[in-house]
Amino acid sequence: MIDRYTRDEMGRVWSLDNQYQSWLEVEIAVDQAWADYGEIPQSDVDAIKKKAAFSSQRIAEIEAKTHHDVVAFTRDLSESLGSEKRWIHFGLTSTDVVDTAQGLRLKQANAIILQDLQKYLSQIKSMALKYKNTVMIGRTHGVQAEPTTFGLVLARYYAETQRNIDRFTRTSRAVETGKLSGAVGTFANIPMEVQDNALRQLGLSSQPVTSQVLPRDLHADYINSIALIATGIENFATEIRGLQRTEIHEVEENFAAGQKGSSAMPHKRNPIGSENVTGLARVIRGHMQTAMDDICLWHERDISHSSAERIILPDSTILIDYILDRFTNILQKLAVFPEE
């Protein structure tokens, strides 16, 4: 995602360095699990924990020759180690590391999004209580109908947000998962006990059944929950845009000192924030189709999902983080005109 819509904390989650750091954490957790299983020396694992290091630049140099990012990563790690390097990637296939490390980064992203959601929910609640008895005209088909209150309008969005939090909590936990079952998922080269031990160390759940990859319906469900959050905010933003129209003018987004509404019409005060989140919600909904398409893989594994997920998972989480933060700030500074 472009810098314009990337907040620092979420941007760090999806940085290249954090990708490699999460891969390293998986490799170390697996080696510790092997040691606990009695297969490799604890002294070698201790040496790996102390000495293992990576260089993004060096990985890029190796990948230019191998055309395989995990191979490049493991070779770079090995360059920082002594004889204990023989345990790096022991019993694993590339997707074990990539899928499990992705679960780690999604867990980091989910913690940020849940904080955003709680802040957003709290803001709606305070406004719903404040404007509980603020009478306004209700509209159906965009036409004046019967009186309602602004507090009731806000309460609808509060209830919708509660549902979105429930959905996101469920789907986010589902993608905080991993698999370490080796090539085609048969555990031929790694015991299930090693997998479950390593995943416990990482704070991830174990999938009951996998192929060489995690099942992608988990991720499709997750992206869908993010899209519903974005669409709920778009729903609310559309209401603000409608109520800010000149002929209605019951609410108005904050207009900061020095802000300009138009290069040609300086009198304009446009609901640009609500329009911005509306457009970004459309982008997230577009990722839903890709996430659904990623479910269908050939036999035990292909990588048709991989290139797509390098885009849709970072972009969806980065955008929902931005949207939630921006729209919460819009609500905090929203001008309400009861007399209108």
Write the layout of secondary structure elements.
Elements: H1 8-13, H2 16-37, H3 42-51, H4 56-66, H5 69-79, H6 94-130, E1 135-140, E2 143-149, H7 150-175, E3 177-178, H8 192-202, E4 205-206, H9 217-243, E5 251-252, H10 272-293, H11 304-332, E6 335-336
Parallel strand pairs: 3-4
Antiparallel strand pairs: 1-2, 5-6
Helix pairs in contact: 2-3, 2-6, 2-8, 4-5, 6-7, 6-11, 7-9, 9-10, 9-11, 10-11
Description:
- The chain is mainly α.
- 62% of the residues lie in helices and 6% in strands.
- It has 11 helices and 6 strands.
- The strands form 3 sheets. A two-stranded antiparallel ribbon has the order 1-2.
- Strand 3, helix 8 and strand 4 form a beta-alpha-beta unit.
- Helix 2 runs antiparallel to helix 3, helix 2 crosses helix 6 and helix 9 runs antiparallel to helix 10.
- The longest helix has 37 residues.
